[in-house]
Structures are given as C-alpha cells and as structure tokens.
Amino acid sequence: MSESISGDPEVVQTPLRVIGESRPDLPVNPAVRQQPPETISPRQSSPLSSRPQQTADRRPNTARPAAPEAYGASTIPTVTKEKRRFVLLVALVTTALLVSGVWYMIDWFEFQESKSLFSKGEMLYQQGKYSDAKQVYQDYLRQYPEGDFASLSLLRTAEIQDSLLAVEARHLMLQKRLPELVDKAIQAFQGGNYLTPEDNNALMYIEEILAIDPENNYILKMKQKIIKFYMEQGDQAVARQSR
Fold first, then answer.
1. What's the pLDDT tens digit per position in 198-235?
2. Residue 228 has what pLDDT?
3. Does 164 score more than 90 pLDDT?
4. Alpha-carbon dihedral sign for residues 60, 63, 64, 70
5. Helices marked H in the chain
6. What is the pLDDT of residue 14?
7. How many whole angstroms separate alpha carbon 16 and alpha carbon 64?
8. Please, are residues 1 and 10 in contact by the beta-carbon 8 Å criterion?
9. pLDDT of residue 170
10. Higher pLDDT, 128 or 206
11. pLDDT of residue 35
12. Phi, psi (5° rounding) for residue 42?
C-alpha cells in the first residue's frame, strides 16, 4: 500500500476481468486434495422445475412385477416325477381297498340273505311240507342261481318233485281202487268185522279210503258208528264189573 500526496493511503485497484474471459489458471498446491467439480443435474438446475418432478414421482407404479426368474432362483418347491408317481400309487391303492371293502360287505349281506331263505326251505322240508318247501327252493334258485346253496336247492327240488310224483301216482292208483275199497268196507261193516280179521276188517278199509278221500261223508259216518259201538261195549263191561 502506498500513500498519496495528500497523505491518505493510496488504494490500489485490481483491474476487473472482462466478461467472457476465462479465469487465469492458478497454481495447484499438490498437498491439498482436489475435489471434482460438482455437476448440477438438469432436474436441479431450476427451483421451479422441482415441484412438477416431485408430483410425477408420486404417481402409482402400474407396471407388472417381474417374473420370478427376474429375481433369481425360484423359491416355489418343485414336485419331482418320483413324488407324483408315489402320490398316484397311494391314491390307486386307497381306491382299490375302498372298492374291495364295499364288494365284501355286499357279498356278506347277500350270503346272509340267501342262507336265511335256504334255511326256511329246509325247515319246511323236514316238516314234510314238500309243496311249500319246493316253492322256497325255486325262489332261491331264481334269486341266487350261483349261490352257495344253489346245488343243494336243486337237489332238494328234484327229490320233492319225485316224491310228489310218487304220491300223485299212488293217489291215482287209489282213486281207481276207491270203489272197490268202499265195497269191501261196507261188506266188512255189515258182517260185524270192525277190527278183525287183521287183513280184512272195516276199519282198515275205512282208513285207506279216507287217505284218498278225506271228506267222504259216508265213510266218516261209518267210522263214527264203529267208535260208538266200542264205547258202548266198554261202558257195559264196566257196568258188569261194578255189580
């Protein structure tokens, strides 16, 4: 600083830099770390443009999310062929067991019903009710042609049929003999041969006739007369012994 003539200190003015003229390069101190010059983003160049940009940034993102492959390896567990085969095998086995169980129950109930029907026929057969038993056996064969008792039902039906045919044949034969038997019964009754002789008496012929024609009133009255006769003979014998 130098002094002026008036004694005031002289102000030294630095000449102004012309607009558009570049600054002179200053010497760089190697000991000081140099920072790179900051660059201003176009968005930040004007304070007026910041609000619209913020408003635009707040709009909802309608873009579809990227596929799982875009984020790396998929986290969904994969089902191998072995697992699928195992699950299918378990399902098939379970279905087979259920079906077999249902069929077993159906067979069991069918067996019980067929057994009950056959037992009914056997009871009638043992009681000598052959016509009724034959009907039951035929019902069994119609309902259970391949049942456990089908063979025996068929055998019973044949036996009953033979027996009924034999009875019918004998009945026809006796029907032809009926007039002859009635004549012999009348002759024995009129002769007083009610019980004797053993092979030619009224009661014997009466029983044969009633086996053929159980509702023959004439023969029934004859039998009642014979019974009444012997009852009176018994009363007289008791009266004689009581005297």
1. 899 999 999 999 988 899 999 999 999 999 999 988 88
2. 93
3. no
4. negative
5. 50-57, 81-126, 130-143, 150-190, 202-212, 217-242
6. 53
7. 60
8. yes
9. 80
10. 206
11. 57
12. -60, -30
Q: How far is CA 204 from each of CA 25, 53, 194, rounded to the nearest angstrom?
A: 168, 137, 8
Cβ pair 194, 202 in contact under 8 A: yes
Number of residues assigned to the chain: 243
Orientation angle between helical segments 150-190 and 81-126, nearest 10 degrees: 10
The residue assigned the tokens 């079906």 is 99
Q: Is the pLDDT of residue 157 over 70?
A: yes
- Can you give the pLDDT at residue 2? 47
H or E element that contains 10? strand 9-10
**CA 119/CA 111 separation, integer angstroms:** 12
Find out whether 106 and 129 touch, Cβ atoms under 8 Å. Answer: no
Go through 132-142 and write b for each residue having 16 or more CB atoms within 10 A of its CB, e for each that does not.
bbbebbbebbe
32-60 exposure pattern, b = at least 16 Cβ within 10 A, e = fewer: eeeeeeeeeeeeeeeeeeeeeeeeeeeee
166, 164, 171, 142: which is closest to 154 by C-alpha? 142
Q: How far apart are CA 173 and CA 211, in angstroms?
A: 12
Distance of alpha carbon 133 from alpha carbon 119, whole angstroms: 10
Q: What is the pLDDT of residues 54-110, one digit of tens each?
A: 544 555 555 565 555 544 545 555 667 787 777 777 777 777 766 666 665 667 777
Q: Cα(195)–Cα(205) distance, rounded to whole angstroms?
A: 10
Instruction: Report how far residue 140's alpha carbon sits from residue 118's, in angstroms, rounded to the nearest whole number.
Output: 7
